[in-house]
Amino acid sequence: MEQFKRFKDEITRFLMMYKFALDSLETKIEILKEEFNFLHDYNPIEHTKSRLKSPESMLNKIHRKRCEVSFPSIKQNIKDIAGLRITCSFVSDIYRIYDMLLNQSDLKIVETKDYIKNPKPNGYQSLHLIVEVPVYMSDRQEQVYVEVQIRTIAMDFWASLEHKIFYKYNEAVPPRLLQELKEAADSAAALDQQMERLHNEVAEIKENHENSEIAKRIIINDKEFQIPAALLEMIDIGQGSK
């Protein structure tokens, strides 16, 4: 009984480190979201979702990998015990967030799998990262792995549907559905590209408009004045005659 209690305490403490790592990473993401909300007119982060593997899931994975059943072995061989999914609107946002994580001095990206540039055969797309997060315990510091998945809303919708279908069919999905899933993935990718083009076009129109509005104002002795419309018209006429 005492041995079981000791094991329970050890696994609780072990999983607690991964929870703290997730909390730390989510706090960083929330700070980035707040920064964009305060300083920019566009936030690339739509929402986030985190999860921790159960002890049963960890043991099953260790068994499949034929690894030693010990906490050091689990930590070394299972790098997705803690997971964080970040959902964006556009593909360019994914790499923007990747760069932001890369610039966090206390984080270390130890593994990158780009399933956007190189989609899986079934059409799955996402950017997968293994991030090493420092966790400060009362008696020591631990470096904890967290898997980060960054994807667009369209990619996330497709992945959720694919997961439900595989679960329903117990992974024995009929070929017809597999083909339709692949076609749906291609459609989602095309939608992402189209939305990105529209987003860039709107941003360019907005920037040109703002530059035009700035051109209609003049600053004299640190005071801003609106240029009279008649004077603007004269300037346009003068430029047209050249």
Tags for this entry?
242 residues; alpha+beta; Beta Polymerase, domain 2; 5-stranded mixed sheet; two-stranded antiparallel sheet; 7 helices; 57% helix; 21% strand; flat
How are helices and strands ordered from N to C?
HEHHEHEEEHHEEH
Give the strand content: 15-25%
Structural class by secondary-structure content: alpha+beta
Q: Tell me about the largest β-sheet.
A: 5 strands, mixed
Query: Do you know the CATH topology of the domain at 2-158?
Result: Beta Polymerase, domain 2
Radius of gyration: 25 Å
The overall pLDDT average reads: 86
CATH architecture of the domain at 2-158: 2-Layer Sandwich
Number of strands: 7
Number of DSSP helical runs: 7
Please give the order of strands in the largest beta sheet: 1-2-5-4-3
- Tell me the overall shape: flat
Termini separation: 95 Å
CATH class of the domain at 2-158: Alpha Beta
